[in-house]
Design a protein that fits this description.
By secondary structure, the protein is α+β, with helices and mostly antiparallel strands. It contains eleven helices and 21 strands. Helix 4 runs parallel beside helix 5.
Protein backbone atom coordinates (compact mmCIF):
# COMPACT_ATOMS: atom_id res chain seq x y z
CA UNK A 1 0.00 0.00 0.00
CA UNK A 2 1.13 3.54 -0.63
CA UNK A 3 -0.28 6.68 0.98
CA UNK A 4 -2.28 8.69 -1.52
CA UNK A 5 -2.95 12.40 -1.78
CA UNK A 6 -5.03 12.27 -4.95
CA UNK A 7 -7.63 9.60 -4.19
CA UNK A 8 -10.82 9.37 -6.17
CA UNK A 9 -13.75 11.16 -4.61
CA UNK A 10 -15.40 7.78 -3.99
CA UNK A 11 -12.31 6.21 -2.41
CA UNK A 12 -11.83 5.20 1.22
CA UNK A 13 -9.91 8.35 2.19
CA UNK A 14 -12.75 10.48 0.88
CA UNK A 15 -15.17 8.44 3.03
CA UNK A 16 -12.96 8.79 6.11
CA UNK A 17 -12.56 12.55 5.65
CA UNK A 18 -16.28 12.91 5.00
CA UNK A 19 -16.95 11.24 8.36
CA UNK A 20 -14.77 13.80 10.14
CA UNK A 21 -16.46 16.68 8.33
CA UNK A 22 -19.92 15.36 9.12
CA UNK A 23 -19.07 14.92 12.79
CA UNK A 24 -18.73 18.68 13.09
CA UNK A 25 -22.26 19.15 11.75
CA UNK A 26 -23.63 16.52 14.12
CA UNK A 27 -22.61 18.44 17.22
CA UNK A 28 -20.03 15.98 18.54
CA UNK A 29 -18.90 17.37 21.93
CA UNK A 30 -15.79 19.52 21.88
CA UNK A 31 -12.73 17.62 23.03
CA UNK A 32 -13.94 14.31 21.65
CA UNK A 33 -11.31 12.74 19.41
CA UNK A 34 -12.56 10.94 16.31
CA UNK A 35 -10.95 8.44 13.97
CA UNK A 36 -12.54 7.06 10.79
CA UNK A 37 -11.17 3.86 9.24
CA UNK A 38 -12.55 2.90 5.82
CA UNK A 39 -12.02 -0.35 3.94
CA UNK A 40 -12.85 -1.20 0.33
CA UNK A 41 -12.06 -4.73 -0.79
CA UNK A 42 -12.79 -7.60 -3.13
CA UNK A 43 -11.94 -11.27 -2.59
CA UNK A 44 -12.35 -14.43 -4.66
CA UNK A 45 -12.12 -18.06 -3.55
CA UNK A 46 -12.37 -20.96 -5.99
CA UNK A 47 -12.38 -24.54 -4.74
CA UNK A 48 -11.92 -27.47 -7.13
CA UNK A 49 -12.23 -31.22 -6.76
CA UNK A 50 -11.90 -34.05 -9.23
CA UNK A 51 -11.12 -31.75 -12.15
CA UNK A 52 -14.25 -29.64 -11.63
CA UNK A 53 -15.11 -26.39 -9.90
CA UNK A 54 -16.75 -27.23 -6.59
CA UNK A 55 -17.47 -23.65 -5.49
CA UNK A 56 -16.64 -20.07 -6.41
CA UNK A 57 -17.27 -17.21 -4.00
CA UNK A 58 -16.67 -13.50 -4.51
CA UNK A 59 -17.11 -10.97 -1.72
CA UNK A 60 -16.71 -7.21 -1.50
CA UNK A 61 -16.01 -6.13 2.08
CA UNK A 62 -16.77 -2.44 2.34
CA UNK A 63 -17.38 -0.32 5.38
CA UNK A 64 -16.37 2.28 7.92
CA UNK A 65 -15.29 1.98 11.56
CA UNK A 66 -15.46 5.02 13.84
CA UNK A 67 -13.55 5.36 17.10
CA UNK A 68 -14.52 8.14 19.50
CA UNK A 69 -12.46 8.98 22.57
CA UNK A 70 -14.17 11.28 25.05
CA UNK A 71 -12.64 13.08 28.03
CA UNK A 72 -11.02 10.75 30.52
CA UNK A 73 -10.02 8.31 27.80
CA UNK A 74 -13.49 6.79 27.42
CA UNK A 75 -13.56 4.84 24.13
CA UNK A 76 -16.60 4.21 21.99
CA UNK A 77 -16.65 2.34 18.69
CA UNK A 78 -19.18 1.65 15.96
CA UNK A 79 -19.02 0.38 12.39
CA UNK A 80 -21.24 0.27 9.36
CA UNK A 81 -21.36 -1.27 5.90
CA UNK A 82 -23.57 1.63 4.81
CA UNK A 83 -21.29 4.45 3.66
CA UNK A 84 -24.11 6.76 2.61
CA UNK A 85 -24.37 10.04 4.50
CA UNK A 86 -27.06 8.53 6.72
CA UNK A 87 -24.99 5.44 7.45
CA UNK A 88 -21.89 7.48 8.29
CA UNK A 89 -23.90 9.79 10.57
CA UNK A 90 -25.39 6.80 12.38
CA UNK A 91 -21.95 5.26 13.01
CA UNK A 92 -20.54 8.53 14.33
CA UNK A 93 -23.43 9.11 16.73
CA UNK A 94 -23.33 5.52 17.94
CA UNK A 95 -19.57 5.66 18.58
CA UNK A 96 -19.95 8.91 20.54
CA UNK A 97 -22.84 7.47 22.56
CA UNK A 98 -20.83 4.35 23.33
CA UNK A 99 -17.93 6.44 24.61
CA UNK A 100 -20.27 7.98 27.14
CA UNK A 101 -20.95 4.55 28.63
CA UNK A 102 -17.32 3.42 28.68
CA UNK A 103 -14.96 3.41 31.62
CA UNK A 104 -12.11 5.90 31.96
CA UNK A 105 -8.60 4.97 30.82
CA UNK A 106 -5.90 7.66 31.05
CA UNK A 107 -3.78 6.00 28.34
CA UNK A 108 -6.47 6.14 25.66
CA UNK A 109 -5.88 8.85 23.04
CA UNK A 110 -5.48 9.05 19.30
CA UNK A 111 -1.90 9.37 18.03
CA UNK A 112 -0.71 12.62 16.51
CA UNK A 113 -0.16 12.72 12.75
CA UNK A 114 3.32 11.63 11.64
CA UNK A 115 5.46 13.95 9.54
CA UNK A 116 5.64 11.44 6.65
CA UNK A 117 5.19 7.84 5.56
CA UNK A 118 7.69 5.45 3.98
CA UNK A 119 7.51 5.31 0.19
CA UNK A 120 6.58 1.80 -0.98
CA UNK A 121 5.85 0.63 -4.51
CA UNK A 122 4.30 -2.38 -6.23
CA UNK A 123 2.12 -3.58 -3.35
CA UNK A 124 -0.86 -3.57 -5.70
CA UNK A 125 -0.89 -5.28 -9.09
CA UNK A 126 -3.69 -5.08 -11.67
CA UNK A 127 -3.76 -8.82 -12.40
CA UNK A 128 -6.03 -9.80 -9.52
CA UNK A 129 -8.83 -7.59 -10.80
CA UNK A 130 -8.24 -8.13 -14.53
CA UNK A 131 -7.98 -11.93 -14.42
CA UNK A 132 -11.27 -13.70 -15.11
CA UNK A 133 -12.84 -16.35 -12.93
CA UNK A 134 -12.17 -19.06 -15.52
CA UNK A 135 -8.42 -18.41 -15.36
CA UNK A 136 -8.46 -18.34 -11.57
CA UNK A 137 -10.22 -21.70 -11.53
CA UNK A 138 -7.70 -23.01 -14.05
CA UNK A 139 -4.87 -22.20 -11.62
CA UNK A 140 -6.42 -24.39 -8.94
CA UNK A 141 -7.17 -27.13 -11.47
CA UNK A 142 -3.56 -27.04 -12.66
CA UNK A 143 -2.29 -27.54 -9.11
CA UNK A 144 -4.68 -30.44 -8.58
CA UNK A 145 -3.74 -32.06 -11.90
CA UNK A 146 -0.02 -31.75 -11.17
CA UNK A 147 -0.43 -33.44 -7.79
CA UNK A 148 -2.55 -36.27 -9.18
CA UNK A 149 -0.01 -36.90 -11.93
CA UNK A 150 2.63 -37.89 -9.38
CA UNK A 151 3.04 -41.59 -8.55
CA UNK A 152 1.30 -42.81 -5.41
CA UNK A 153 -1.18 -39.94 -5.09
CA UNK A 154 -4.71 -41.25 -4.54
CA UNK A 155 -6.63 -38.00 -4.20
CA UNK A 156 -6.24 -34.25 -3.74
CA UNK A 157 -8.47 -33.67 -0.76
CA UNK A 158 -8.51 -29.86 -0.98
CA UNK A 159 -7.33 -27.50 -3.70
CA UNK A 160 -8.11 -23.78 -3.78
CA UNK A 161 -7.26 -20.48 -5.39
CA UNK A 162 -7.75 -17.34 -3.28
CA UNK A 163 -7.08 -13.66 -3.90
CA UNK A 164 -7.89 -10.22 -2.65
CA UNK A 165 -7.56 -6.51 -3.36
CA UNK A 166 -7.88 -4.02 -0.54
CA UNK A 167 -7.82 -0.25 -0.15
CA UNK A 168 -7.85 1.19 3.34
CA UNK A 169 -7.75 4.73 4.67
CA UNK A 170 -7.55 6.46 8.03
CA UNK A 171 -8.40 10.03 8.92
CA UNK A 172 -8.53 11.46 12.42
CA UNK A 173 -9.15 14.67 14.30
CA UNK A 174 -5.45 14.57 15.27
CA UNK A 175 -4.46 15.15 11.65
CA UNK A 176 -3.80 11.59 10.47
CA UNK A 177 -4.58 11.11 6.76
CA UNK A 178 -3.33 7.96 5.05
CA UNK A 179 -4.58 5.75 2.24
CA UNK A 180 -3.12 2.70 0.57
CA UNK A 181 -3.81 -0.46 -1.37
CA UNK A 182 -2.43 -3.95 -1.84
CA UNK A 183 -3.22 -7.17 -3.68
CA UNK A 184 -2.40 -10.81 -3.09
CA UNK A 185 -3.18 -14.26 -4.47
CA UNK A 186 -2.52 -17.76 -3.26
CA UNK A 187 -3.15 -21.31 -4.39
CA UNK A 188 -2.59 -24.55 -2.51
CA UNK A 189 -3.12 -28.29 -2.83
CA UNK A 190 -3.51 -30.84 -0.04
CA UNK A 191 -2.64 -34.22 -1.49
CA UNK A 192 -3.03 -37.72 -0.05
CA UNK A 193 -0.65 -40.53 -0.93
CA UNK A 194 -1.80 -44.11 -0.39
CA UNK A 195 -0.11 -47.43 0.00
CA UNK A 196 -0.84 -50.71 1.82
CA UNK A 197 -3.85 -49.42 3.72
CA UNK A 198 -2.43 -46.08 4.82
CA UNK A 199 -2.70 -42.48 3.69
CA UNK A 200 -0.28 -39.64 4.24
CA UNK A 201 -0.89 -35.96 3.53
CA UNK A 202 1.23 -33.21 2.05
CA UNK A 203 0.68 -29.49 1.48
CA UNK A 204 2.07 -27.43 -1.38
CA UNK A 205 1.39 -23.78 -2.15
CA UNK A 206 2.32 -20.83 -4.32
CA UNK A 207 1.77 -17.13 -3.66
CA UNK A 208 2.20 -13.72 -5.28
CA UNK A 209 0.61 -10.32 -5.76
CA UNK A 210 -1.17 -11.28 -8.99
CA UNK A 211 -2.04 -14.57 -10.74
CA UNK A 212 0.79 -14.35 -13.28
CA UNK A 213 3.27 -14.77 -10.43
CA UNK A 214 1.87 -18.13 -9.30
CA UNK A 215 3.36 -21.55 -10.09
CA UNK A 216 0.44 -23.95 -9.51
CA UNK A 217 2.15 -27.01 -11.00
CA UNK A 218 5.04 -26.60 -8.58
CA UNK A 219 2.56 -26.36 -5.70
CA UNK A 220 0.90 -29.59 -6.78
CA UNK A 221 4.19 -31.45 -7.12
CA UNK A 222 5.33 -30.13 -3.73
CA UNK A 223 2.16 -31.45 -2.08
CA UNK A 224 2.58 -34.85 -3.74
CA UNK A 225 6.27 -35.16 -2.86
CA UNK A 226 5.63 -34.37 0.80
CA UNK A 227 2.77 -36.87 1.05
CA UNK A 228 4.59 -39.68 -0.73
CA UNK A 229 7.73 -39.27 1.39
CA UNK A 230 5.76 -40.10 4.54
CA UNK A 231 4.43 -43.47 3.37
CA UNK A 232 5.37 -46.26 5.71
CA UNK A 233 5.66 -43.91 8.70
CA UNK A 234 5.81 -45.44 12.17
CA UNK A 235 6.70 -44.22 15.67
CA UNK A 236 10.36 -43.73 16.50
CA UNK A 237 11.97 -44.53 19.83
CA UNK A 238 11.39 -42.24 22.79
CA UNK A 239 14.40 -40.10 23.61
CA UNK A 240 16.18 -36.76 23.37
CA UNK A 241 16.71 -35.68 19.76
CA UNK A 242 18.18 -32.90 17.73
CA UNK A 243 15.06 -31.80 15.87
CA UNK A 244 15.12 -30.02 12.52
CA UNK A 245 12.00 -27.98 11.86
CA UNK A 246 11.39 -27.37 8.17
CA UNK A 247 10.20 -23.96 6.98
CA UNK A 248 6.50 -24.77 7.36
CA UNK A 249 6.76 -26.06 10.93
CA UNK A 250 9.19 -23.30 11.88
CA UNK A 251 6.68 -20.74 10.62
CA UNK A 252 3.89 -22.49 12.51
CA UNK A 253 5.75 -22.20 15.81
CA UNK A 254 6.77 -18.57 15.23
CA UNK A 255 3.28 -17.62 14.08
CA UNK A 256 1.59 -19.11 17.12
CA UNK A 257 3.92 -17.49 19.65
CA UNK A 258 4.03 -14.12 17.84
CA UNK A 259 1.44 -12.77 20.28
CA UNK A 260 3.97 -13.22 23.10
CA UNK A 261 6.00 -10.33 21.60
CA UNK A 262 3.02 -7.97 22.03
CA UNK A 263 3.52 -5.26 24.63
CA UNK A 264 -0.20 -5.56 25.36
CA UNK A 265 0.22 -9.25 26.29
CA UNK A 266 3.28 -8.46 28.42
CA UNK A 267 1.52 -5.59 30.22
CA UNK A 268 -1.36 -7.95 31.06
CA UNK A 269 1.00 -10.69 32.24
CA UNK A 270 -0.05 -12.96 29.39
CA UNK A 271 3.31 -13.55 27.72
CA UNK A 272 6.28 -15.79 28.33
CA UNK A 273 8.44 -12.65 27.89
CA UNK A 274 7.16 -10.76 30.95
CA UNK A 275 10.16 -9.04 32.57
CA UNK A 276 12.63 -10.37 29.99
CA UNK A 277 13.36 -7.34 27.76
CA UNK A 278 17.14 -6.97 27.58
CA UNK A 279 17.74 -10.56 28.64
CA UNK A 280 19.27 -13.46 26.72
CA UNK A 281 16.26 -15.64 25.88
CA UNK A 282 17.66 -17.52 22.89
CA UNK A 283 20.73 -18.86 21.15
CA UNK A 284 23.17 -16.33 19.72
CA UNK A 285 22.18 -17.72 16.32
CA UNK A 286 18.64 -16.36 16.65
CA UNK A 287 17.78 -12.91 15.34
CA UNK A 288 14.14 -12.08 14.63
CA UNK A 289 12.64 -8.96 13.04
CA UNK A 290 9.12 -7.70 12.70
CA UNK A 291 9.43 -5.85 9.40
CA UNK A 292 6.37 -4.03 8.11
CA UNK A 293 8.30 -2.55 5.19
CA UNK A 294 10.04 -5.56 3.61
CA UNK A 295 9.16 -5.29 -0.11
CA UNK A 296 7.76 -8.77 -0.75
CA UNK A 297 6.07 -9.29 2.62
CA UNK A 298 2.38 -10.25 2.57
CA UNK A 299 1.68 -7.81 5.43
CA UNK A 300 3.84 -4.93 4.18
CA UNK A 301 2.31 -1.45 4.44
CA UNK A 302 3.62 2.06 5.11
CA UNK A 303 1.19 2.50 8.00
CA UNK A 304 -0.53 0.45 10.67
CA UNK A 305 -4.12 0.18 11.86
CA UNK A 306 -4.14 3.65 13.41
CA UNK A 307 -2.10 5.46 10.78
CA UNK A 308 1.36 5.24 12.35
CA UNK A 309 4.36 4.53 10.10
CA UNK A 310 5.55 0.96 10.05
CA UNK A 311 9.25 0.10 10.22
CA UNK A 312 11.55 -2.82 11.06
CA UNK A 313 11.55 -3.69 14.77
CA UNK A 314 14.31 -5.90 16.21
CA UNK A 315 12.66 -8.41 18.52
CA UNK A 316 15.56 -10.79 19.07
CA UNK A 317 19.18 -9.90 18.35
CA UNK A 318 21.64 -12.77 18.76
CA UNK A 319 19.18 -14.26 21.24
CA UNK A 320 18.63 -11.08 23.29
CA UNK A 321 15.05 -9.78 23.59
CA UNK A 322 15.53 -6.18 22.44
CA UNK A 323 12.02 -4.81 22.05
CA UNK A 324 8.30 -5.57 22.14
CA UNK A 325 5.62 -4.65 19.62
CA UNK A 326 3.72 -1.47 20.50
CA UNK A 327 0.65 0.44 19.44
CA UNK A 328 0.36 4.07 20.51
CA UNK A 329 -1.78 2.90 23.47
CA UNK A 330 0.70 0.37 24.85
CA UNK A 331 3.55 2.85 24.32
CA UNK A 332 1.76 5.49 26.43
CA UNK A 333 1.05 2.88 29.08
CA UNK A 334 4.70 1.76 29.08
CA UNK A 335 6.02 5.26 29.73
CA UNK A 336 8.05 8.04 28.17
CA UNK A 337 10.81 5.77 26.85
CA UNK A 338 8.41 3.73 24.68
CA UNK A 339 6.97 4.63 21.27
CA UNK A 340 4.65 3.01 18.78
CA UNK A 341 6.45 0.47 16.62
CA UNK A 342 3.73 0.68 13.97
CA UNK A 343 2.05 -2.51 15.16
CA UNK A 344 -1.52 -1.41 15.77
CA UNK A 345 -3.41 -4.20 14.06
CA UNK A 346 -7.00 -4.41 12.78
CA UNK A 347 -8.83 -7.43 11.46
CA UNK A 348 -11.12 -5.17 9.44
CA UNK A 349 -13.17 -1.99 9.69
CA UNK A 350 -15.32 -3.89 12.19
CA UNK A 351 -12.66 -3.92 14.91
CA UNK A 352 -10.68 -1.59 17.13
CA UNK A 353 -6.89 -1.68 16.75
CA UNK A 354 -4.99 -4.10 18.95
CA UNK A 355 -1.32 -5.10 18.80
CA UNK A 356 -0.09 -7.62 16.24
CA UNK A 357 2.93 -8.61 14.22
CA UNK A 358 3.39 -7.70 10.55
CA UNK A 359 6.04 -9.75 8.72
CA UNK A 360 8.15 -11.93 11.03
CA UNK A 361 11.62 -12.49 9.54
CA UNK A 362 14.06 -14.98 11.05
CA UNK A 363 17.68 -14.35 10.06
CA UNK A 364 19.18 -17.03 7.85
CA UNK A 365 22.18 -19.25 8.46
CA UNK A 366 24.05 -21.21 5.84
CA UNK A 367 23.30 -23.77 3.15
CA UNK A 368 20.27 -25.71 2.01
CA UNK A 369 18.00 -27.97 4.04
CA UNK A 370 20.07 -30.92 2.84
CA UNK A 371 23.23 -29.17 4.07
CA UNK A 372 21.58 -28.64 7.46
CA UNK A 373 20.61 -32.31 7.72
CA UNK A 374 24.19 -33.31 6.90
CA UNK A 375 25.55 -31.03 9.63
CA UNK A 376 23.06 -32.44 12.15
CA UNK A 377 23.94 -36.02 11.24
CA UNK A 378 21.32 -37.80 13.37
CA UNK A 379 17.98 -36.68 14.77
CA UNK A 380 14.38 -36.04 13.74
CA UNK A 381 13.28 -33.95 10.77
CA UNK A 382 9.77 -32.52 11.39
CA UNK A 383 7.52 -31.76 8.42
CA UNK A 384 4.11 -31.25 10.03
CA UNK A 385 2.62 -30.47 13.45
CA UNK A 386 -0.69 -31.62 14.95
CA UNK A 387 -2.59 -29.95 17.78
CA UNK A 388 -0.74 -26.70 17.25
CA UNK A 389 -3.22 -24.24 18.77
CA UNK A 390 -4.02 -26.37 21.78
CA UNK A 391 -0.44 -27.58 22.26
CA UNK A 392 1.42 -24.24 22.16
CA UNK A 393 0.77 -21.73 24.95
CA UNK A 394 2.15 -18.20 24.31
CA UNK A 395 1.55 -17.30 27.98
CA UNK A 396 3.57 -20.09 29.58
CA UNK A 397 5.64 -20.98 26.52
CA UNK A 398 4.82 -24.67 26.85
CA UNK A 399 4.92 -26.72 23.63
CA UNK A 400 3.48 -30.23 23.33
CA UNK A 401 2.46 -31.22 19.82
CA UNK A 402 2.23 -34.28 17.64
CA UNK A 403 4.68 -34.42 14.75
CA UNK A 404 5.15 -36.21 11.46
CA UNK A 405 8.45 -36.35 9.64
CA UNK A 406 11.52 -38.49 9.09
CA UNK A 407 14.48 -39.68 11.06
CA UNK A 408 17.78 -38.05 10.19
CA UNK A 409 20.13 -40.92 9.49
CA UNK A 410 23.73 -40.43 8.36
CA UNK A 411 22.96 -36.82 7.51
CA UNK A 412 19.95 -37.53 5.30
CA UNK A 413 16.17 -37.73 5.67
CA UNK A 414 15.48 -41.41 6.28
CA UNK A 415 12.64 -43.53 7.63
CA UNK A 416 9.26 -41.80 7.90
CA UNK A 417 7.93 -41.11 11.41
CA UNK A 418 4.43 -40.48 12.77
CA UNK A 419 2.44 -40.80 16.00
CA UNK A 420 5.12 -39.16 18.12
CA UNK A 421 5.01 -36.09 20.35
CA UNK A 422 7.60 -33.43 21.08
CA UNK A 423 7.61 -31.55 24.37
CA UNK A 424 9.57 -28.41 25.21
CA UNK A 425 8.93 -24.74 25.93
CA UNK A 426 9.53 -21.71 23.75
CA UNK A 427 12.42 -20.27 25.78
CA UNK A 428 14.18 -23.65 25.86
CA UNK A 429 13.58 -24.03 22.14
CA UNK A 430 15.07 -20.61 21.39
CA UNK A 431 18.07 -21.23 23.63
CA UNK A 432 18.72 -24.63 22.07
CA UNK A 433 18.78 -23.55 18.41
CA UNK A 434 22.04 -25.08 17.22
CA UNK A 435 22.04 -24.49 13.46
CA UNK A 436 20.07 -22.58 10.81
CA UNK A 437 19.85 -23.11 7.06
CA UNK A 438 19.61 -20.44 4.35
CA UNK A 439 16.45 -21.76 2.69
CA UNK A 440 13.97 -19.13 3.91
CA UNK A 441 10.57 -18.82 2.25
CA UNK A 442 7.43 -16.79 2.87
CA UNK A 443 4.86 -18.93 4.69
CA UNK A 444 1.44 -17.18 4.66
CA UNK A 445 -0.44 -20.04 6.33
CA UNK A 446 0.40 -18.92 9.88
CA UNK A 447 0.28 -15.15 9.43
CA UNK A 448 3.20 -13.72 7.48
CA UNK A 449 6.47 -15.45 8.30
CA UNK A 450 9.77 -15.58 6.39
CA UNK A 451 11.85 -18.32 7.93
CA UNK A 452 14.53 -20.86 7.10
CA UNK A 453 14.67 -24.38 8.51
CA UNK A 454 16.50 -24.66 11.84
CA UNK A 455 17.81 -27.29 14.25
CA UNK A 456 17.12 -27.49 17.99
CA UNK A 457 19.15 -29.71 20.33
CA UNK A 458 17.84 -31.80 23.22
CA UNK A 459 14.13 -31.94 22.40
CA UNK A 460 12.15 -34.61 24.24
CA UNK A 461 10.43 -36.96 21.79
CA UNK A 462 7.82 -39.43 22.97
CA UNK A 463 7.37 -42.37 20.62
CA UNK A 464 7.34 -46.10 21.20
Amino acid sequence: MTPSTNSKSSGPLAVSKSALNRSRRLGVPLGTELEAYAEFGRTTTVKVFGGKIESAVTAEPLGLGVRAIASGGRVGFAYTADISDAGIDSAILEAVANSGAAGSDPYQALPAAPSSYPALADLWRPGVGSTGLDRKAAIALEAEEAALAQPGIEIVETCEYMDGEERVAIASSKGVEAEGEHSFCFSYAYALAGGEGERQAGLGFTMGREPAELSPSEAGVEAADKARALLGAAPCSTGSYTVVFDRMTAAALLGVVASAFSAEAVQKGRSVFVGKVGQQVGSELVSLLDDGLIPDGPSTSPFDGEGMPQHPTVLLENGVLRQLLHSSYTARKEGSKAASTGNASRGSYRSLPGVGSTNLVLAQGEGSLQDLLKRVGAGLYVESLAGLHSGVNPVTGEISVGVTGRLIEAGEAGRAVREVTIATDFISLLRSVSDIAADARWIPVYGSVFTPSFAVQGVAVSGK
